[in-house]
Write a structure and sequence with these properties.
The chain has helices spanning 17-25, 33-36, 56-66, 86-96, 110-118, 138-150, 168-179; strands at residues 2-6, 28-32, 47-51, 72-76, 102-105, 119-120, 127-130, 155-158, 185-190, 198-203, 218-222, 228-232, 235-240. By secondary structure, the chain is an alpha/beta fold. The protein folds into two domains: 2-105, Tetrapyrrole methylase, N-terminal domain (Cobalt-precorrin-4 Transmethylase, domain 1, 3-Layer(aba) Sandwich); 110-247, Tetrapyrrole methylase, C-terminal domain (Methyltransferase, Cobalt-precorrin-4 Transmethylase, Domain 2, 2-Layer Sandwich), CATH 3.30.950. Helix 3 (56-66) crosses helix 4. The chain is globular and about 55 Å long.
Amino acid sequence: MLYVVGIGPGSPEQLTRRAREALLQSDVIIGNDSYLAQLGPLIEGKEVIRSSMGQEVKRAKRSIELSKTRVVSMVSGGDAGVYGMASIVLEVLEHEGTGIPVEVIPGVTAANAAASLLGSPLSGDFAAISLSDLLTPIEVIERRLHAAFSMGIPIVLYNPKSRGRPHNFALAMEIAGKYRGSGTPVGIVKNAYREGEEVMVVTLGEIALADRMVDMHTTVIVGGEESRIWRNGQHAKGIITPRGYHRKYLY
């Protein structure tokens, strides 16, 4: 049996009940070392196989081979089906024609985790785009950014900046500025529900103030045309994107 388990943003409290059950039922736990470190006592007594970034194909093949005779959990941060391990595991299974049972278990993805810490920035339609050009050419990412920002809806940016590609986030903010005003709220969440959590709300015109927070552990939410900063007194508490109730009801 092979479970592909989305473990959420990192805090054990954010694991789904089904994810916890799968981990406890497994003989072998395999995954990126940074994700395994977040599971603590849940994987004690298990055979744990640690891997690093860039070893996704090798990891998928290993998990499939082991699951022919044992119960295996392949762990993936956030949701396994959103920029996670589910696709490569299923592609390898399909390619090999292996008939083992597999279950993809959902988890809280970064967009949901970050949004909850910001208030309600994603109340209606929104789009998510990864700025990593490791698997997707930067020209394609740039085209998608133009298309997404032109719709006027909130945009969630995954993998905004790394040491190897420090300029992609600046490019995304430049494109955002072509379709959004300088007062558009931007939420920056680093290490959501993990040690070192930081939350900041700025405007698009102030985005340089948040640059130090933006890395591979950060999720950025750029507000849509109707999004506004949610304030508690004079302090920016988060972001509200109205769903449209104000157009239909009095409150």
